[in-house]
Amino acid sequence: MRTSIATVCISGTLEQKMLACAKAGFDGIEIFEQDLTVSPMSPEEVRALADRLGLTLDLFQPFRDFEGVDEATLRANLARAEAKFRLMGQLGIDTMLLCSNVGTATIDDDELFASQIRALAKLAAEHGVKIAYEALAWGKFVNTYQHSWKIVELVDHPNVGLCLDSFHILSRGDDPAGIADIPAEKIFFVQLADAPVLSMDVLSWSRHYRVFPGEGGFELDAFMGHLVRSGYDGIVSLEIFNDVFRQSNVERTAVDGMRSLIWLQDKTAAHLGAGALDYPLGLAALPGAQEPSGFDYAEIRTEDPEIVAGMLAQLGFTFRGQHRRKPVTLWSAGEARIIINTQRSRGITAEVSGFGVQVPEAALGTRRATALKAPAVPRHHTVGEAPLHGFTAPDATEVFFGTTADEPAWAAEFGDGTTPADTGAITGIDHVNLAQPWQAFDESVLFYTSTLNLTARPGTEVPSPMGLVRSQVLRTEDGAVRLALNIVPHGLEDSRASAPRYPEHIAVHTDDIIALARRAVAAGMEFLAVPNNYYEDLAARFGLDGETLAQLQELNLLYDRDEHGEFLHFYTETVGSMFLEVVERRGGYDGYGAPNAPVRLAAQFERNRLMTY
Ligand SMILES: O=C(O)c1ccc(O)c(O)c1
Ligand SMILES: [Mg+2]
C-alpha cells in the first residue's frame, strides 16, 4: 500500500516536515498550501527536495468554496483555480483536493454543482490536473460521501473523482459500507484520521482532535475493509489536525503516523480474513499477533535497593537471590515476579523501569514490535542464559517478551535457581500503571496496543490537585495483561533531578487483602493514608455496615463495588516515583477502582507535595 501524510499533521518548517516524513518511511506527502505559502523554498526547490528524499508529492490541498455560486463568483473561482494549477505544474503535483463549499455556496442545486465542477475539470485537464472532490462534514449543501459521489457521477469527467476522508464519514455516523460499491478508478484519493469519541460540533472536533489511526474510537479497520473491497489501489494518506501533534517533535510524530498505517494494514487484513492480501491495495501484514497470557515480571530501577526490597518483603514477597552476573535481584510471590535493578540507577531513587509479558513465541513478539518501529533494547546474554527479546517504548519503559510458562526460564539465573515455597498471599501482577507525558499520550496508546496486541478501553478523566488526569486502560480481553496509562499534567513532565517524576505503580492481586494488609502492617509497612471524609462518603454510597467500614478505615483500604462484584485495594507510600498497589477482586469486578483514584492522587499530593505553584 502506498502511504502518504499531509504536511499539516506535524510541526516545523516545510523542509523539516519533508525530512521527517521521508525518514519515517512514507512514500509521499500531501502539500498543505499554507505550508508552502510560508516557506522560503520555491516550488521548484520543494519538488527537487522531494525527489532527493524519494518522496512523491501526491496532493495539493485544499481548494475551497468553489461550487454552488453565482456566475461572477464562478469566474473568479476559475481564475483562482488556474493560478493554483500553474503552481501545481511547478511543484509537479497532478491532483488537487476540492473541498465541498462551506461558505460561499448560495444555490442548492446538484446539477449546478456538477456543471460548475465540470467547468473546473475542463480547465484542470488543460493543465494535466485531476480534481479529488471531498465532502466536508460541515459542507453547506454537500456534506456526505454519498452526495459527493452523486455529484462526481453527474460531472462525468475523467479528471474528476472522489477524495474519501474517514473523519468526515465516521464523525457523522455515516455507514461507510457504500464505499465498496464505488468504482475504484473514481476514488482519486483517501485520507485517514481517527478521533476520540466526543460530543461537540464536528468542525471543532475535526480541526483540533483528530488522531492517528488506532489512537481514537473510529472503526478504521472496517472502513478500510470497504475501501479494499472497492478494488482501490491508490494512495492512503494521513490527514490529522491535532493541536498537540502540531507542537510535538516532528520526527517522532512522523514515526507515530507511520506506525499507525503499518498497524492499520495488519488490522484490516485481520478484519477481512482470508484473501485480504490479494486485493489490489496490497495490504502489508505484520509478523503474527500473539495474545499475551500474563505478565512475565515488572522491574524497578533504584539506586537504593534496600528500600524497595523492604517494601516487597513487608508485602510477603520472597527474595529469590541475585542474578549470577548482573546487579539485579528477583523477588516473587505467587505468579508475581519483581526485579530490582541497580544498573544505570545513579540519581534514581526508584522508578518503574520496565515489564515483561508472556507470549507463545518471544522472538516473534520482537519481530512484530520491530516491524512497528519499536527500537530494540540491546541485552547481552551469555552461554546458558535465556535470550531476552525486548524494545523501548516512547516513554523509555523497557518491555520484554517472555515465553508462556508458570516459571520463566530466566528465573533460574537468580540465586541457587530453586523455586521456594510460596507464601500464598499474593497471586500475581494485576496491572502496571505508567505515566505518559501529555504530548506523548496518543502515541503511547497506539504503541502499546500495537506492539503488545492489547485493546484500548475508552479513556476516563480523574480529577487531582495537579489537574485533570487522563487515564486509559489497554488490556487483553481476558484481563491477564492490563496496562493503565495516565497522562502527566503540564508542568510535571520534565525530569529534572530536583523534580520528582510523576508516580507510576505496579499492582499485584491477592485473594485475601485483609489478611495481607494486617501482616504488612505488623511487618512495619505504612500505607498511603486515606482521609476520614472518604469513609463517610463510602458509608453513604454503599451502605456498608459499621464493622466492615471500621476495618477498611483501620487498614486504609479503598473500596468499590459495581454490578459485577467488589474491589478492595491499598497503596504503599511512594518511593522516588514508584509505589505499589495491592488489589483484591471479588466476584466479577473488572475495573480499577476509578472512583477512588482522586482520593489516591490527592493523598499522594498531600504527602509528597508533587507540585507547588
Ligand atoms: O478543516 C478543513 O478545512 C479541511 C481541509 C481539508 C481537508 O481535507 C479536510 O478534511 C478538512
Ligand atoms: Mg480531508
Automatic annotation (TrEMBL):
Domain of life from the UniProt record: Bacteria
Alphabetized UniProt keyword annotations: Carbohydrate metabolism, Dioxygenase, Lyase, Metal-binding, Oxidoreductase
Reaction catalysis annotation: 3-dehydroshikimate = 3,4-dihydroxybenzoate + H2O
InterPro entries noted in UniProt: DSD, Glyas_Bleomycin-R_OHBP_Dase, Glyas_Fos-R_dOase_dom, IolE/XylAMocC-like, VOC_core, Xyl_isomerase-like_sf, Xyl_isomerase-like_TIM-brl
UniProt pathway: Aromatic compound metabolism; 3,4-dihydroxybenzoate biosynthesis
EC numbers: 4.2.1.118
Protein name: 3-dehydroshikimate dehydratase
Organism annotation: Paeniglutamicibacter sulfureus
